[in-house]
Amino acid sequence: MITLRMVNDMRKRLKDYNIEQASSREKVSGQVLTIQFSNDEATKRVVMHSARRVIQQHKAEIQELAYK
User: Fold this and answer.
1) Distance (Å, rounded) from C-alpha 42 to C-alpha 44?
2) Please, are residues 16 and 10 in contact by the beta-carbon 8 Å criterion?
3) Which residues are CB-neighbours of 43 under 8 A, at least 6 positions away?
4) CA-based end-to-end distance of the chain
5) Which is higher by pLDDT, 6 or 56?
6) CB 68, CB 57: distance < 8 Å
7) What does the pLDDT look like over 12-33, one tens digit per residue?
């Protein structure tokens, strides 16, 4: 039978980790990645999500041009 004390003893706390143990990772954010598109539902979702995000980011500018 596992007791609460045993569970608490098994948990690793943040202070238990050493900085030297951190692995170095290549920074990917902000880089352009190529994606092979095909004619399927997944590609449609990716394209629609990207289009909505760009429209949302530039919404004020788009409305300004529309009502000019």
Assistant:
1) 5
2) no
3) 37
4) 73
5) 56
6) no
7) 676 776 677 667 777 766 777 7
pLDDT of residue 40: 92
**What backbone phi and psi angles, to 5 degrees, belong to 25?**
-120, 145
Q: Tokens 């000019």 sit at which residue? A: 68
Q: What angle do CA 53, 54, 56 make, to 5 degrees?
A: 65
pLDDT in tens, 55-68: 999 999 999 998 88
* 39-43, long-range: CB < 8 A, 24+ apart: none
Report the alpha-carbon distance of residue 49 to residue 57 in Å, rounded: 12
